[in-house]
Amino acid sequence: MLTKRIIPCLDVKEGRVVKGIQFVELRDAGDPVELACFYDEQGADELVFLDISASHEGRKTMVEVVKAVASELAIPFTVGGGINSLEDMKRILRAGADKVSLNTAAVLRPELITEGANFYGSQCIVVAIDAKYDEEIGTWRVYTHGGRKATERDVISWAKEAVERGAGELLLTSMDADGEKKGFNIALTKAVSEAVTVPVIASGGAGNADHFAEAFLDGKADAALAASIFHYKETSVAEVKESVKQRGVCIR
Amino acid sequence: MIGIIDYGMGNLFSVEKALERLGVEAFISDDHERLRQADGLILPGVGAFKDAMDLLNENGLTKMIHEYVQTGKPFLGICLGMQLLFESSEENGLTNGLSLLPGKVIRFSGVDRKGESYKVPHMGWNKLRFDQDSPLLQGVDEDYVYFVHSFYVDADQSDVVLAEANYDVNVAAVVGKENVFGMQFHPEKSSVMGMQLLRNFTKLTEKGSTADEFYNLSRN
């Protein structure tokens, strides 16, 4: 049986992990390699690094970070943020990342998904979708630019299109649930997971260890991602796995 | 010294780094002579079967690999590299493989026996079940490893399967015959378990063994 995956997400700015300040046992809480290995030891099934650098220099530094992480980490990891071209994908994948995550660039030019999938295979192309419920249209709308810009696209049809174009996995973030810590957005996760044939990673809203089982059992997610509750040690990967296991979900 | 075959497909870097962490010397190369000298070869691979076979044929690596295997030195295919060891694949039309192991590579149907659809690729952590004794599995417990693939070798249809995993069907996960081995998952991405399996492969090369010695190893 394939297990459900627990994925900590690390925000990287100018080559350093931001947040993650609660790790007293680490020599350097801002070091991406040290944090990555820490999560690996805790039993993380995969990691996501989100590059939130604002500058060109910061982006270049990310390649060095990827190289350093790939040298030490023996679990798969995805890199997202600021990947706008086949050239960007190439740099990150060659540096040792297993997958790249596309967001705004894929919405602006969906052909990019196909180009990446043709060149590297669908298995390393993740499409990240930021979703927010829109009362007027009665469904979820796709947002870009880190959630700042609403688009005309509806989440379900965009999810289907992304998969048709070659996405091997979807990273679905509920902007409504994000930061609320009341649990994952089950309705959204279920709707997308049932609409596509590739794995869906639920993101946004995790507030405690028990929220994860809901994402798998009710939301039909294949993986669940969280950032702050791990960084601020509100729970641990091990605790989440124990909780999920107790609910009968297959977990590593 | 382990040679990692560079034929333009796949994540060579992470395999090399994994070996480095094990303290095993390795190099990435497409140079036939250098590869021939290696104590063991690894054929990695991510991507499409046909593209990979075309590249191996064009670069003369198909012939080199066959000659290498004849010497009895250990050879390991990873992920697509394992699939290439078999006779053929139905990916993008029927394509002939290296035919070092008997069997065919087929696609996950995406629909189970009850008619319900399941997700393809088979992506994530799945547990191994050991079928046969092998030096590759010595001292290792059945545990989870990381898979990413849409095509597979049917474990029920092959007698070279050393370990399998279940994903609707029985998937050949570790295969081996004499000095030719394959792993469908990514040992270099499979945490502690993956490292143990890679370590076992590199141990075979340290002995500088021939195929005969492998038999003895697996009998003991």
TrEMBL record, chain A:
GO molecular function: lyase activity
Gene3D superfamilies according to UniProt: Aldolase class I
Uppermost EC category: lyase
Superkingdom in the source lineage: Bacteria
Annotated catalysed reactions: 5-[(5-phospho-1-deoxy-D-ribulos-1-ylimino)methylamino]-1-(5-phospho-beta-D-ribosyl)imidazole-4-carboxamide + L-glutamine = D-erythro-1-(imidazol-4-yl)glycerol 3-phosphate + 5-amino-1-(5-phospho-beta-D-ribosyl)imidazole-4-carboxamide + L-glutamate + H(+)
Pathway info: Amino-acid biosynthesis; L-histidine biosynthesis; L-histidine from 5-phospho-alpha-D-ribose 1-diphosphate: step 5/9
Keywords: Amino-acid biosynthesis, Cytoplasm, Histidine biosynthesis, Lyase
Primary subcellular site in the record, as a coarse category: cytoplasm
Compartment(s): Cytoplasm
Any Pfam family the entry gives: His_biosynth
Subunit structure: Heterodimer of HisH and HisF.
Function: IGPS catalyzes the conversion of PRFAR and glutamine to IGP, AICAR and glutamate. The HisF subunit catalyzes the cyclization activity that produces IGP and AICAR from PRFAR using the ammonia provided by the HisH subunit.
Protein name per the record: Imidazole glycerol phosphate synthase subunit HisF
Biological source species: Cytobacillus gottheilii
Name of the encoding gene: hisF
Automatic annotation (TrEMBL), chain B:
Record's keyword terms, sorted: Amino-acid biosynthesis, Cytoplasm, Glutamine amidotransferase, Histidine biosynthesis, Hydrolase, Lyase
Listed EC numbers: 4.3.2.10, 3.5.1.2
Reaction(s) catalysed (UniProt annotation): 5-[(5-phospho-1-deoxy-D-ribulos-1-ylimino)methylamino]-1-(5-phospho-beta-D-ribosyl)imidazole-4-carboxamide + L-glutamine = D-erythro-1-(imidazol-4-yl)glycerol 3-phosphate + 5-amino-1-(5-phospho-beta-D-ribosyl)imidazole-4-carboxamide + L-glutamate + H(+); L-glutamine + H2O = L-glutamate + NH4(+)
Function recorded in the entry: IGPS catalyzes the conversion of PRFAR and glutamine to IGP, AICAR and glutamate. The HisH subunit catalyzes the hydrolysis of glutamine to glutamate and ammonia as part of the synthesis of IGP and AICAR. The resulting ammonia molecule is channeled to the active site of HisF.
Highest taxon, organism lineage: Bacteria
Pathway: Amino-acid biosynthesis; L-histidine biosynthesis; L-histidine from 5-phospho-alpha-D-ribose 1-diphosphate: step 5/9
Lineage, uppermost ranks: Bacteria, Bacillati, Bacillota, Bacilli, Bacillales
Main location: cytoplasm
Catalytic site positions: 79, 186, 188
Protein name: Imidazole glycerol phosphate synthase subunit HisH
Domain Glutamine amidotransferase: 4-201
One Pfam match: GATase
Subunit structure, as described in the record: Heterodimer of HisH and HisF.
Compartment(s) of residence: Cytoplasm
InterPro entries in the record: Class_I_gatase-like, GATASE, Imidazole-glycPsynth_HisH
Organism: Cytobacillus gottheilii
Keyword Amino-acid biosynthesis: yes
